[in-house]
Every structure is written in C-alpha cells, then in structure tokens.
TrEMBL record:
Pfam families: Cu_amine_oxidN1, GHL10. The keyword Ligase does not apply. Coiled coil: none annotated. Residues 141-156 have a biased composition (Polar residues). The lineage of its organism: Bacteria, Bacillati, Bacillota, Bacilli, Bacillales. This is Uncharacterized lipoprotein YddW (UPF0748 family). It comes from Paenibacillus shirakamiensis. InterPro entries: Cu_amine_oxidase-like_N, Divisome_Glycosyl_Hydrolase, GH, GHL10, Mao_N_sf.
Length: 536
C-alpha cells in the first residue's frame, strides 16, 4: 500500500511519463545540502535518481561524521555511526541495517569515480530528519533535538493551537510495519520497552494533528504481530522470522489506541507469502513451508494462490483469530490480491489450479480469478459479521477500478494498472452486494494529473457507493508531496483534495499513507492539516 510506492513508480513508467526517467542529472549547483543550517560541500554534484537524492559517499563521512568504507571485492559501501552499521551493495535495492534487510529507495552506483548513495535513506537510518524543499532545490538534514527519537526522523514541534475539532469524519493513518516503514524501527528489534514507547509517541503525534483512527499492519506477509496458532511471528519485531518478541504487540497497541479515544483497525495483507524470494529461510510454521503447493511465484516473489479454496480459508481463519480474540474496531485489507505485474514472460502460473478448482466451469481465467477473490471477500465478511457485527470491514483497492477504454462505465482515466483487470478485484460487485462496510480507494494522484485525475476519481467512486450502505473513505498520498510528479509541488494539494471530498456527502473520511509521511511535515503540511481539521 502502499508498500505501493514502488508500484506507483512502475505504473508511471508504464504510462511513459518523462518525469520519471531513470536518471535526472541536476546542474552542479542546483541541489544544495545543509546539515543543521550549514551547507555541506561536495566535489561531485548531488543528483536525483527516480526522484531520490543521491550524494557521494564522501559527503556521508565528511558531512555527517560517519565512518565509511568501500569494499571493492563485494561492491559494498559500509557506513558506521553511533553503533549503527549500514551496508549498501551496488546495483541492489536491499540494504543491511545492523544485519537486517531493509528496502532501499534507490541503489548505489558510481559517477565520475565517486560512489553515489541515497541520502534520505542513510540520513534517516542515522537518526537525522531529512526534508526536501523543491522550490529551493534544498535538502535539509537536522540532528535530533532530544534523545530517544529512534524512528530516524526529528518531527517538528506542532503548535498546540489550533486544536483539531472532534469529527464524525474518519481521519485515518496507515501504519506500515512491512520493512519497518512506520513502526517499529529496526533499532528497536527485540526491545519491548522501546517498541512500546515508539508506538506511544507515534499515536500522540498523530492525534495532535487530528488523526482519530489508525490502520495498523498486523499481517505484513503471512505472518503476525500477535501470538498466532496459524502463522509465525513477524520478522519486523525482532529481525528474525518466527521469533517471539516477548510480549503481545497487538494487545498493547489496541489498549494505547483506545486509551486516547481513537479507533484501531487491524490491517491485513492477505495473499503475500513473503517479501523475500527465498522461501527456504522462512520458519517451519510459515504457510510457504507448511503448504508449498499453495505458493505461486511471480516477479520472483511468492504469493498464496487465491484459486485454492483451502488456502483462502486459512487466511480467513488467521484473520478471525484477531476478530475473536482482540477488541479491534475494524478489519482492513489492502490491494494485494493477484499480483499486478504479470507479463507474457513472467506469468502467475495458476493453470493447474484453474483446471482443478473451477466448480462453475468458468471459461475465462480472468473471470475465474475474480470469482476466487469474490468468494474470499464474501466469506470473510460473513465470518466477521457473524462473530462480531460491530466490527467494520473494508478494503483499500487501487484507485482505478477500470478505464473507460475497457468499460464505458469505468472512470475517465488512462491507468496502466486497474483493480479489475490487473488485480482481479471486482470492487463494484462487493459494493453492490453489500459484502463490505466501506471502500477506501487509494487515489494517489493530484487534481492536475490528467492520466488519473483525483477529482474525476473521487466523483466516480462517490457515484459507485451512492444509494448503498457502503461508506467511502479516500486514500490520500502525503508521501508524494515534494516529488517531481505533476501536482505535488505544494502541500496545499492535500488540503484542496480534502475540500473537494467535503463537497461529496458520500465521502465519510480520509486515510493518509502513511503515518511517517504526515509527521515528516513535507513542504509544511502539518500546520495546514491541523488548521483544516480545527475548522472542519
């Protein structure tokens, strides 16, 4: 979902947008680097790669005071500071942070004899706040003002006034745990008290902005942030898949969230089996190890095959563990159904399953895949509503259902990926059948992005839920503020989108991706949001 950042970049690439060329070289003096207000000098000019600032390794050593070493035999940059060790290997997008794999924004490469490394990633891992001012072409690094900020970013102090008004609108934030994107930090692995304090701090800051609901990822990849009889402990708690963290993170998070009068929605990624291509390293209790016949690889990554009824039921059973044993306010699922990256040379190979598990003898494989997802959505909803009717149940699909070029009832968009044709999720049927309580499409584009305009998509989704009991929440994209994509050069874009939402009675709130991207205060978003929430 967002781990959807990479998918968004791939989508834009498919659409042929020149904005996202693989290398965009800046003029030598165009990007300025500052640390605590002091300009950092660089003999090779910083540049942007796929929207991320890359700097010579020397800047990290001389400017940030870290120890650096280049290992030519393995083509690896090693960076050490304050007990933290980062290893970045040339050409790969996975870094090692204190021995744990963490996803990179951009891989290391060489330019004019200098090793170029991603500044934001390294700065945040070393405990610095990193902000990008697009208008000034300025990257500002800030040293934390107080100890204990282990999330890697120093958040600006938010003026306690204006106070956000209580609202019957949902004001949500996604809290991603996959790759430790939002919580917990990699430096908290195996440290119960540190993880608890990080979550408490995160909640306090979000509530101060005006957020009243959190959507916390409790199943990142066929694993759990709670003691489960069906799936292993998540690696994002200890750094080791299957290792018990020594406490129940889910119980703690629910208690702290409710103590503040906020809602807690448990967010599940249903069919992703692992973020790693090597399933042999997963615990013996993992789904991939227990049921290798359920696993299909696409793009090198393993997925649980949605076409196998027993596999779908196991996922439902794992979700129902949480529904039955915890005081959650909602069950939330993202858009990981069938993988959207299929190509003629890289298929999701489910031909045997298509022939074996096809009780209705559906001839078209696409229709059969949609049938499988429909069955999953319907049966999970029935289970939840039977056990606890008060628990809200909904999905956050990709923002485009279908383009008009494919279906005249689709949206006026030209998206290269759609939820119906690429992920085989027929959200319209879910709405019309009343299988879900709400839908939260990820409309991660601006109101001037003609390929998929925000205003047109909000209008389309509002019409889809109109006359039904299904609520509409909009997935917002603060993570895009300050990026080169069309329309995101000002934080006012988010406020304008919220104002547009308010003109549609069907829109009952917003969910922001993600928590850390709100609190980074991109281009001054925080005071704008706080002011908007105080008056609306």
């Amino acid at each position: 979902m967002k781990l959807r950042r990479l998918m968004m970049l791939l989508l834009l690439s498919v659409l042929g947008l020149s904005t996202w060329s693989s290398y965009v070289l800046a003029k030598p003096a165009s990007i300025t680097l500052q640390l605590d207000g002091q300009v950092l000098q660089s003999d090779v000019a910083p540049l942007t790669k796929s929207g991320f600032t890359m700097v010579p390794l020397r800047v990290i050593s001389q400017g940030l005071g870290a120890q650096v070493e280049w290992l030519p035999s393995s083509q690896t940059a090693v960076i050490v500071k304050s007990g933290d060790e980062l290893r970045l290997k040339m050409g790969t997008k996975i870094a090692q942070v204190n021995g744990n794999a963490v996803k990179l924004d951009a891989s290391v490469f060489t330019l004019k004899g200098r090793t170029m490394v991603p500044l934001r990633f390294i700065g945040e891992q070393l405990g610095l706040a990193v902000d990008w001012n697009a208008s000034k072409q300025l990257v500002s690094l800030t040293t934390p003002r107080s100890p204990g900020n282990d999330g890697g970013t120093t958040e600006p102090t938010i003026d306690p006034t204006p106070v956000p008004k209580p609202s019957n609108q949902l004001r949500g934030a996604w809290i991603s745990t996959v790759y430790n994107l939002d919580w917990p930090s990699t430096s908290s692995y195996g440290k119960e008290s540190k993880q608890k304090q990080e979550y408490v701090d995160l909640l306090d800051k979000l509530q101060n902005v005006g957020i009243n609901t959190v959507f916390v990822q409790v199943r990142p990849a066929a694993d759990a942030l709670y003691p489960s009889k069906l799936v292993p402990w998540s690696q994002y708690l200890t750094g080791t898949p299957g290792k018990d963290p020594g406490y129940d993170p889910l119980a703690f998070m629910i208690q702290e969230t409710h103590r503040r009068g906020m809602e807690f929605h448990a967010w599940f990624n249903p069919f992703r089996a692992s973020v790693s291509s090597d399933t042999s390293k997963l615990p013996a209790s993992s789904t991939a190890a227990q049921h290798p016949d359920w696993i299909v690889k696409q793009g090198g990554k393993p997925y649980i095959n949605p076409g196998i009824p027993e596999a779908r039921q196991q996922i439902i059973d794992a979700i129902m563990e949480v529904v039955q044993n915890y005081d959650i306010d909602g069950v939330h699922l993202d858009d990981y159904f069938y993988p959207s990256g299929e190509s003629s040379s890289d298929k999701f190979d489910d031909s045997v399953t298509f022939a074996t598990f096809n009780p209705l003898q559906i001839k078209d494989k696409g229709d059969w895949r949609r049938y499988n997802i429909n069955e999953f959505v319907k049966q999970l909803g029935q289970s939840i509503h039977t056990a606890k009717p008060s628990v809200s149940y909904g999905y956050a699909p990709f923002g485009v259902w279908r383009n008009q070029s494919k279906d005249l009832t689709g949206s006026d968009t030209k998206a290269g990926v759609t939820t119906y044709d690429s992920m085989y999720a027929d959200v319209r049927t879910w709405i019309n059948q009343g299988w879900i309580d709400y839908v939260a499409p990820q409309i991660y584009w601006s109101m001037t992005f003609n390929v998929a305009r925000y205003d047109k998509l909000v209008d389309w989704w509002a019409k889809e839920v109109r006359g039904t009991p299904v609520k509409l929440y909009i997935g917002q994209a603060p993570y895009k503020i300050g990026t080169p994509e069309i329309g995101w050069q000002s934080a006012q874009e988010i406020i304008n989108q919220l104002k547009l939402n308010a003109t549609y009675p069907e829109v009952k709130g917003s969910i922001f991706y993600s928590a850390k991207d709100i609190l980074k205060n991109p281009l001054g978003l925080l005071p704008l949001l706080q002011n908007y929430f105080s008056t609306n």
